[in-house]
């Protein structure tokens, strides 16, 4: 049984005080990110007074793996990783460091409310082995051969200035293949089963103490997240040994 964790996807979130005129900055984002993202960005034609969480403009990365959405109160960069990146935690870390360097130059430091890394890890299992593995490493008696679903969630303050949220659950995913002629994804009929770990580390406690923003939080968030990923196993996550 191979219990090696891989990274399937990530979200990088930069949250800031509501900027009702964020739409006017779309040209700044296009200019700053044109080497990485498709331009022009797609804009959403809704009144500025409506829900600040709705993206006002968005784009995809040139290679199609990342999606950038900018609303009145946050920047969200979501990325799905291919096999090349899944097999290398170092490549994912390098990728996120590069992107946060680009994005941090486009946000006002004094308006930032928190930064978050949300990274989903996974391990592929034989379907018949998942429940016994979960029961062995959590001690949850409700998990038996008949258990169809499982979810374990815990949160704690971490390293003084951070919150750490961890969610472990079962998953199944349909394997897809790319049709080169139509450039569309088609299901292969093969289904993969496994255990997912969603790691959310964010800087809310830092700002709850009314501290002013410090650029070091970008590198610190990255360092803490990847230190956990590199040094903790699936069993550690299931046992809460973080």
Structural descriptors:
alpha+beta; 36% strand; 7 helices; globular; 242 residues; 9-stranded antiparallel β-sheet
Account of the 3D structure:
Helix 3 packs antiparallel against helix 6. This protein is α+β, with helices and mostly antiparallel strands and 242 residues long. It has one domain. It is globular, with a radius of gyration of 20 Å. The chain has a 9-stranded antiparallel sheet with strand order 2-3-4-5-1-6-9-8-7. The model has no long low-confidence stretch (mean pLDDT 90). It is built from 7 helices and 9 strands, in the order βαββββααβαβββααα.
Structure, briefly:
With 242 residues, the chain is α+β, with helices and mostly antiparallel strands.
Which SSEs are present, and which pair or pack?
Layout: E1 6-16, H1 26-33, E2 42-43, E3 57-60, E4 66-70, E5 74-80, H2 83-86, H3 89-104, E6 112-125, H4 130-138, E7 151-158, E8 162-179, E9 184-202, H5 204-208, H6 216-231, H7 234-239
Antiparallel strand pairs: 1-5, 1-6, 2-3, 3-4, 4-5, 6-9, 7-8, 8-9
Helix pairs in contact: 3-6
Q: Report the oligomer.
A: single chain
Unreliable stretches (pLDDT < 50, length at least 5) are none
The arrangement of helices and strands along the chain is EHEEEEHHEHEEEHHH
- Overall domain count: 1
Instruction: List how many beta strands DSSP finds.
Output: 9
Mass-distribution shape: globular
The portion of residues forming beta strands comes to 35-45%
How many helix segments?
7
Helical percentage = 25-40%
Terminal CA distance reads: 23 Å
The assigned structural class equals alpha+beta
Strand order of the largest sheet: 2-3-4-5-1-6-9-8-7
Main sheet: strands, sense, barrel: 9 strands, antiparallel
**Would you tell me the overall average pLDDT?**
90
Radius of gyration, whole Å: 20 Å
């Amino acid at each position: 049984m191979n219990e090696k964790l891989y990274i399937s996807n990530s979200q990088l979130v930069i949250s800031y005080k509501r900027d009702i005129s964020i739409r006017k900055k779309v040209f700044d984002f296009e200019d700053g990110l044109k080497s990485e993202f498709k331009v022009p960005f797609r804009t959403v034609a809704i009144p500025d007074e409506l829900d600040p969480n709705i993206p006002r403009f968005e784009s995809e990365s040139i290679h199609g793996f990342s999606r950038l959405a900018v609303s009145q109160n946050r920047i969200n960069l979501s990325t799905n990783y291919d096999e090349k990146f899944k097999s290398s935690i170092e490549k994912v870390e390098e990728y996120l460091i590069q992107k946060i360097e680009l994005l941090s130059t486009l946000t006002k430091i004094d308006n930032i409310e928190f930064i978050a890394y949300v990274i989903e890890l996974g391990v592929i299992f034989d379907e018949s082995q998942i429940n016994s593995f979960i029961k062995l490493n959590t001690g949850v008696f409700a998990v038996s051969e008949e258990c169809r679903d499982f979810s374990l969630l815990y949160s704690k303050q971490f390293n003084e200035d951070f919150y750490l949220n961890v969610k472990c659950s079962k998953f199944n995913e349909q394997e897809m293949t790319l049709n080169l002629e139509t450039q569309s994804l088609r299901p292969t009929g093969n289904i993969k089963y496994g255990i997912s770990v969603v790691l959310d580390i964010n800087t809310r406690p830092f700002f709850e103490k009314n501290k002013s923003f410090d650029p070091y939080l970008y590198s610190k968030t990255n360092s803490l997240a990847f230190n956990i990923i590199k040094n903790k196993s699936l069993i550690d996550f299931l046992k809460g040994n973080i």
